[in-house]
Design brief:
Number of strands: 11
CATH class: Alpha Beta
Helix content: 25-40%
Number of helices: 8
Shape: globular
Largest sheet: 9 strands, mixed
Order of helices and strands: EEHEHEHEHEHHEHEEEEH
Radius of gyration: 17 Å
Strand content: 25-35%
CATH architecture: 3-Layer(aba) Sandwich
Low-confidence stretches: 141-145, 251-256
Oligomer: single chain
CATH superfamily: Vaccinia Virus protein VP39
Mean pLDDT: 89
Number of domains: 1
CATH topology: Rossmann fold
């Protein structure tokens, strides 16, 4: 494992991913991953081998986490040059250059470089808010991560549909308020929703995240999985969250 400190830019730090000895470069001024990315990396159905691509990869946390779950080759696609650079340096930090490649490009053009229908799994943690809604953050990095500035929801799903092979999976994390839009646009692009799981901050509270996985050209048949409740009454993480964050990933695999 490389030290990595010599490659840090002002405001950057190296954080432990708390499992499998993985580390990542972060910046409070530019980008730090959140729980939704970790949950998506745990939720998605990974192939034992093959090809995976993560769109809107940010600082590369999902591709790096996925290397502990599969022997597949993983690509990360990120439009923001600064974030793509952070992701590429994190890949080198973990000595994963033979497993992960980071592409600084618009996801709408990714199929032109990566080809049509060549991926077993596409993951994406896209911007949640339409460009015209809510107050936009003055920091352009944060604004692009939260609002659909560089891509709309339909742009994201269309890119997924171009990249995934027939029978392959597309996994996304989003807000429950967009669920009807998600299901509609997934089906529009022949991505049949198969697994849905809601994430709730606490028992008795409304969900604030939804995890959804679809199959390209799949038959209609959807499973609503048990809800994931993040916090217990005393404010600590629930046992499942503790295992997701702290246990070695191999010990969690269920072969789903």
């Amino acid at each position: 494992m490389k030290d990595g400190n010599e490659g840090l830019q002002p405001g950057e730090r190296i954080d432990d991913l708390l499992r499998n000895n993985l580390r990542i470069i972060q910046s409070a001024e530019v980008f730090s991953f959140s729980m939704d990315a970790v949950l998506l990396a745990h939720f998605c159905s990974v192939p034992a081998k093959g090809r995976i691509v993560d769109l809107c990869t940010g600082n590369g946390v999902i591709p790096i986490l996925l290397t502990a779950r599969t022997n597949a080759s993983v690509w990360g696609v990120e439009i923001q040059e600064r974030l793509a650079g952070m992701a590429a340096r994190s890949v080198r930090l973990n000595e994963l250059e033979d497993r992960v490649q980071v592409l600084n490009m618009d996801l709408k053009d990714a199929h032109q470089t990566l080809g049509y229908g060549g991926f077993d799994l596409v993951t994406v943690n896209p911007p949640y808010l339409p460009a015209h809604t809510g107050e936009r953050n003055g920091n352009p990095h944060f604004a692009a991560a939260r609002h659909e500035i560089h891509c709309t929801l339909e742009d994201v799903v269309a890119a997924c549909a171009k990249l995934v092979k027939a029978g392959g999976k597309v996994a996304m994390v989003h807000r429950p308020s967009r669920l009807v839009d998600l299901l509609s646009v997934f089906r529009q692009y022949k991505l049949e929703p198969k697994r849905v799981r809601f994430v709730h901050p606490r028992a008795g509270e409304e969900a604030n995240m939804v995890l959804i996985e679809a199959a390209k050209d799949g038959r209609p048949d959807i499973r609503l999985l048990p809800p994931l409740v993040v916090y217990q009454e005393d404010g600590s993480y629930c046992p499942e969250l503790m295992s997701i964050y702290y246990e070695p990933i191999q010990a969690m695999e269920s072969g789903r």
